[in-house]
């Protein structure tokens, strides 16, 4: 095909390869001579899911490429954001699609269920690739009968998954990008020190207000204890050694420096230079939350379709899926940033030099 | 494949023909050596649409088959209802999917738009089949440059469309089914006479109440005129000759008898025997409304993508699509039944014999 | 107000009591002189939720009334179905509404969070009433700090909750209605016996097919064991004594007779007389699933807003909400019916007399 | 209320003013002694709409305030964006809410419809305020019976609407903000000249490629004519005098300078400094499109509810609403920017000095 090809014409039907596409639905019940009406729906449902998984992978791969450049170019960040947002939009659609599956009743499913054995959603390599590309590691996964999730795949597929798992996931690239944030120490402004001071001041102020308030003694004590807990919590989390211990033990995953950078971005997100980084972190939460909801809704649908019986893949589908919903969350540490935030009114003001540094400088010269 | 095939195993990947499915995305920009990132999305979007169209056609064809049986079996009606409802659910998803398309910006579309020429959604034969199967006739369609919508299709596709258009659409089968409703004359109960009497009584009563009310004279006049208009309207619509004139002129499509049956079903829908017929008519409205919304949202999306410029198919896409939204509605006459309804409090009571006739009779003998 | 009131005019603004309605948003941060922009959203979000809860209660109360009539009238069942379906539609909207809440960032919430103490969604008496009316008993609830969920309410509210909990919930009314199903024994047709025979035949047939198949020995063994497990399961569940033991121990809640009736309705749902009962059971699952999803999404939102810190109500909101999502499911036993279904091809044919009994009898005499 | 108030406690029930809120549903049918079950739904539906309208107005007013500052502060733009996005999210919910209304059947509506006269959605002053605040002028509105839309409002409400219409709408503030864009002339870089040159080069190139292609003569002619039309179109639109003529005649509304700035922002949106402006323009399109869809769906719902009969407000509701859907669009000119875009490959490169000027400059000194 040459570049001038844009001047050859193409028909919609050919462009989309519809002859091939629409011949790929091959109900097994039909082949066996006892067509189950709903098997076509079942096939199309899953083919559509796989097409969307391919699209998500396409977007993720492009994002990884942009992030892998030696120096992440600022003018790529907007593109990254738009592509992550597209993934969220697609996941929303995947969730809605469960409603279509729910139009199939358990009795209708039984008409062809036996033909599927032992095929199952566990065997979707693309979905595993999506999870792995985002950053889910083999050790994070809930095991099924104590075996690697990879055993249902071909060697070639296993190799692809292995490459993804060892090649630098989005989680790792985001972590490195956060660690590179140049704003943590800025001239003589030390963000962490200023933040800790603000936390202390805020907590002292609150304790004083509680003492002087009209609250009953038991209420005073309760609120006071809450404030005290917060204080301990902040100290605990912001301690580098403590943090590293948590990472080592698996309680946290994101490195200390990346965590602090994410905190800074959340607190000062209104600074123009931090708008896009903030939106980007938000989008990672959206993707994580979307996938969690999808897994959960999927588990509900399976429950509805087959009750507590084991799925076609030989697993008690509902329980497994319901457990993965939350456990396979990837950017959990970013969710936890919320518990470190302090009110804007307590935020340390940025020194003017820093504030200028974080703004846009349009120099028309 | 033999019946025992349900005891051969199958892998998810093979069952869904994923090797083939995932190789059918062939961006023309890539072939030409200047990959446009968003072309993959564009292809997958449309392939997913076509898969859903196939599913809708599968459901519609099965419904037509059930309706074509000499005597529509009552115990098929529930199945018909569930399948129509599935179509509505799928259309809801098609509408949601427009959000995914909207993540593609006009500038991104421009990167590969030239490669598509003259491919266009006009060339989706499956969508035309959906419309024709529901009951859209060639003469109902908004013409484009005064030519048949069929000219963009192959001879074989044109033949298929022709067969559908002449083979008895869902509209026609529903019309015949309504005409067969046995309840219009029931022993010595004449529904239409009773209904017209009720309308007259209701209107007389309302006029009296208006006269006796505390309303200002101008308000009395306005309300009175409204009631009078209603009266004229009812007389007009319920007149067989007038109705047939409207059908002849194209102002209405549904036959007189079918219209009256639909009216009866709406008014007495709480009678057990009319539950499913009522739900079925409602579902036809849902499908019609869903497709209308889809066309309208599609038109908006095209406007956003290319403004007022002509589409890749050489049409001013937005205007054409926006006009089809409402014009290609199929069950318009069922929507209009609403304007014939009268309040339950004015409804003629069914004679006890009729009421028993419309209930369930469980005879445990 | 007299009946003639329909002839006095009313303005939209007055009808909706907008002067009062729009004056009920009273941000505490504003009262304290430091307006937090997002507090208005927070108030309106929750007021909208409460308005919808009122609507759900209105529908539920009307459904309970219809079910409480000595003999549930068949021509009310369609109304019941439409109202339950409306509840599902409203719950779908409640779920969507979480997206609006998610436009509030954690930092924005912090601006007024302290003013809310200790107000919390735990204190929504209407939501508790919805759960209780559906059938959630006090003992089913996850306790919070080991105390009754009622302690946050006024005495009058507690009394209302108590009345609901002891007055016959929807669960109980549905259970009684199922138990009254007259189809279980029908002339000389004994549904349960026929069903058990069909299960045995089906299982025997499957075992034979597995033995004769080309499967590897280990596969044969695995499939055979699965079939065997099914067999045990069916025997187990269909045994009245065993069932009663499960109810006594809390493993199941729905009575044996009601369970068998629900099974019959699911298996023979295509019989006209069972259409509405089947749709009604389906709608109960939809409501249950909708509330479950709402609780789960709510938990996710709380996690996002405040991380792992305790909520304004003093609870670790996310964990509590996430646990209630599944635990507060009410019609769990209806979900489990799915695991008792057998393929239509194995279903015992109904004797012709029974089949006639389940159809419509339109007698035009 | 003093600042220490955050240390007085508040109950959820009191905070939300639930006693008052839940007593504002006063069905007229109940007052008249013939309760129509669905009237409560009707009231709650509309009260919820009005609460959301209040929220939209709250967001719009805050955005206007931020835009009215002498010099729009860059670090407010992100806040503006988040608030506009919230409005879009709310509008999505308003659209979804129509499904709840659609659970009310025409027959159910008839049970209380007479009581509403002449109340109607036309009388929602808040919705008119939303439209006016966005920028809809009185002269843009489709008139109803040739009278001002304001006549259904009180004098005080009319005055409020007048103030909004004359006080600087969002449209006007956006227009001024676009006109202030400093990037149109940048050192010796003249954006418009460079853009026009690029358009000419692109068109010449395309014409050459068409001539040299393998297309049939008629195809060549067709494509060539399309390209020619584009060329004319670009010239036409980019001519200041021609543009001013269009504004004067009402064909366009956005000023020439603002249009060119919007074009630049769309073309160079990847430049960091233009990210937020681009996202902001996109959000205005989203709001416009959302309101259009809402009006359209609303029109459909009215059609379904009352057919072609006149609404309670005395208008033929469906037709009026369907026409406003598109006609009351406010940022039409921003939609049309799409037709002015040219492919990135044809875009003039920015001189390095300009590119630096559009990037972030982080100076850690």
What is the H-and-E element order of chain A?
Answer: HHHHHHHHHEEHHHHHHHH
Oligomerization status of the protein chains? homotetramer
CATH class of chain A: Mainly Alpha
Proportion of beta-strand residues of chain A: under 5%
Mean pLDDT of chain A: 86
The counted number of beta strands of chain A is 2
Estimate nothing, just give the exact number of structural domains of chain A: 1
Low-confidence spans of chain A:
361-365
Q: Can you tell me the overall shape of chain A?
A: globular
Please bin the fraction of helical residues of chain A.
Answer: 55-70%
Trace the largest sheet of chain A across and list its strands.
Answer: 1-2
Tally of individual helices of chain A: 17
End-to-end Cα distance of chain A: 46 Å
Q: Report the biggest beta sheet of chain A as strand number plus sense, adding barrel if it closes.
A: 2 strands, antiparallel
Helix-strand category of chain A: mainly alpha
Question: Which architecture of chain A would the CATH scheme give at its second level?
Answer: Up-down Bundle
CATH topology name of chain A: Methane Monooxygenase Hydroxylase, Chain G, domain 1
Rg of chain A, rounded, reads: 26 Å
| Most extensive chain-chain interface | C-D, 68 and 67 residues
Binding site for heme (chains A, B, C, D): 298
Pathway (chains A, B, C, D): Amino-acid degradation; L-tryptophan degradation via kynurenine pathway; L-kynurenine from L-tryptophan: step 1/2
Keywords (chains A, B, C, D): Dioxygenase, Heme, Iron, Metal-binding, Oxidoreductase, Tryptophan catabolism
InterPro entries (chains A, B, C, D): Trp/Indoleamine_2_3_dOase-like, Trp_2_3_dOase
